[in-house]
Every structure is written in structure tokens, then in C-alpha cells.
Specification:
single chain, mainly alpha, 88 residues
């Protein structure tokens, strides 16, 4: 039920997706989870399957935090488009 709510109700109404609506064939949750944003590094990364994503994310985390971490942990430290605040 939580996945359904995020996919159909919550995520499409976040400020980023209200400005840039998702129109692709994949679920909005899948698309959102594959993107990361970091303002300190000045990075927007759209992860494409089988394209060295783990290496990229772990290296970004190393640049930002100065320590090595597993890719699944590193991904949790970055913001996704749905997590962006409304522009003031």
C-alpha cells in the first residue's frame, strides 16, 4: 500500500514533479529512486542500469563525506528529485 501511495499520490505532487511531470513508461517511484541530487557537489546524477552506477555513487559519497561506503549506503545519503523543497 505504501508503494502505491508514493507512486500514485505523493510523488507526482512533489514540487519537482509538478514543474517537470513524469510522462515515461516506468513508474515515477522507480524514476525518482534512480536520480540523485547534491547541491554541495553541484551534481545531478541520473543512474542508468549497467553503467557503473555503483562506482559513480560511491565516488560521489567519498568526495562529499571523505570515507568509503557501500553503494547501497551511499545512495541513501543523497537527495532525490521528490525530496527537493519548493522554491522560495
Amino acid at each position: 500500500m505504501e508503494h502505491f501511495l508514493a507512486n500514485r499520490v505523493i510523488t507526482p505532487w512533489q514540487p519537482f514533479y509538478r514543474t517537470y511531470p513524469h510522462k515515461g513508461g516506468a513508474s515515477i517511484t522507480s524514476v525518482n529512486d534512480r536520480n540523485l541530487i547534491d547541491f554541495d557537489l553541484g551534481v545531478f546524477c541520473s543512474r542508468t542500469p549497467k553503467a557503473a552506477n555503483s562506482a559513480i555513487v560511491t565516488n560521489l559519497a567519498h568526495l562529499k563525506f571523505g570515507e568509503h561506503m557501500l553503494d547501497r549506503d551511499a545512495k541513501k545519503h543523497f537527495m532525490t528529485p521528490a525530496g527537493l523543497p519548493r522554491r522560495s
